[in-house]
Design a protein that fits this description.
Shape: globular
Strand order of the largest sheet: 3-6-5-4
CATH topology: 2,3-Dihydroxybiphenyl 1,2-Dioxygenase, domain 1
Structural class: alpha+beta
Helix content: 25-40%
Length: 143
């Protein structure tokens, strides 16, 4: 994922220094050609229909997005601390800490360049979740 930003220094400060993503070497030429590759750990891609995205907005208490969005979702050990750190770095709170029906604590902020960042703290393992009703893969769901 590439986040193009006009305020590179602010974005770098937020993602590297506030969110704690370690920086790794990256190639750039000179002048205004700047890039930073940040290690975000293990990544997953969540594909969602617009209906599901609006349901998540509702569950998290966030205003519905207008049109398709890209949102970073970062698993953290302490969602409250992540939100506090982000807000101290001038991130705008979009959705407060919420315990979700899918057993995680979620909160959402708006970071540099307008990107939404959801912090989620898991309250149960994938194995525990898989044993509960409603948690299936798309292929397992009846259509």
């Amino acid at each position: 994922m590439i986040i193009e930003t006009d305020d590179f220094d602010e974005a770098l400060r937020f993602y590297r220094d506030v969110l704690g993503m370690p920086e790794q070497p990256a190639f750039a030429t000179d002048g205004d050609d700047r890039v930073s590759i940040l290690n975000a750990g293990t990544a997953t891609i969540e594909l969602a229909t617009p209906t599901h995205a609006r349901n998540i907005d509702r569950i998290e208490g966030a205003e519905p997005s207008s049109g398709p969005t890209l949102r970073l979702a970062l698993e953290v050990d302490d969602a409250a601390r992540a939100v506090s750190d982000a807000r101290a770095a001038d991130a705008r709170l979009l959705a407060p800490l919420t315990t979700t029906p899918f057993r995680s604590i979620n909160a959402r902020v708006e970071g540099p360049a307008g990107w939404q960042v959801t912090f989620f703290q898991e309250l149960e393992s994938v194995e525990e979740r898989a044993s509960r009703p409603g948690f299936d893969t798309d292929d397992q769901r009846a259509r």
